[in-house]
Amino acid sequence: MAESDKKVVSVTMTGFGPFMDIKTNPSWTVVQGAAKVLSENTDLKLVSVQELTVVYADVSKKVKEMHVEFKPDLAIHVGVAKGYANITIESQSVRSGYSIEDVSGCTPPKFEAVCDAVKPPNECITTAIDTKEIHKHCSDKLAGKVGFKLSTDPGLYLCGFCYYTSLYCNTSALFIHIPDEDEPYSIEEMVKSLVLIVEHAVQQIKHKLLH
């Protein structure tokens, strides 16, 4: 067996805490549920599963520290998007434009992510994960049960901010937007969907190690 066949992919996962009228954020509930299922998968190792507060400074600090401490092969971030009808796989994020106040009433310096970068990063960073392949795989697996959508716009609030910060540290990162609970999917359906996404992303990374 090749050494890369035995490679265990290290994975970090985050969800968000309460904000606005969302008292129990389904993103964190789904991340916790998926983490329990994924803990049985021998192709990966969950090295960190964290709840992020909806605060720019906190997200910036925790996401950067997560990458430095755990050096994950894959970082998965999940957020809720009220009104969305599908599980939405985000493929990129931008650095600037974060002018909406967080739950503490603050915005990031210059309305930018990674504002402390010594070398100015690209305005837009795209994930190294093949999101089209993941979209097809998951759509085929859960056809008629759960809908999946590809997106290039995670928004200019904490979700986009979190994703850009993570991509800046390592482009093997994904951000997944889920609808609110039961609008239209149950927590169990969204957990199953997230598990599928993570497992397929892990297989992509393992495949890259073979070539």
TrEMBL record:
GO terms for cellular component: cytosol. It comes from the Eukaryota. The keyword Protease applies. Transmembrane segments: none annotated. One of its GO terms (biological process) is proteolysis. Keywords: Cytoplasm, Hydrolase, Protease, Thiol protease. The keyword Cell inner membrane does not apply. GO terms for molecular function: pyroglutamyl-peptidase activity. Belongs to the peptidase C15 family. PANTHER family: PROTEASE FAMILY C15 PYROGLUTAMYL-PEPTIDASE I-RELATED (PTHR23402), PYROGLUTAMYL-PEPTIDASE I (PTHR23402:SF1). This is Pyroglutamyl-peptidase I. It comes from Oopsacas minuta. The lineage of its organism: Eukaryota, Metazoa, Porifera, Hexactinellida, Hexasterophora.
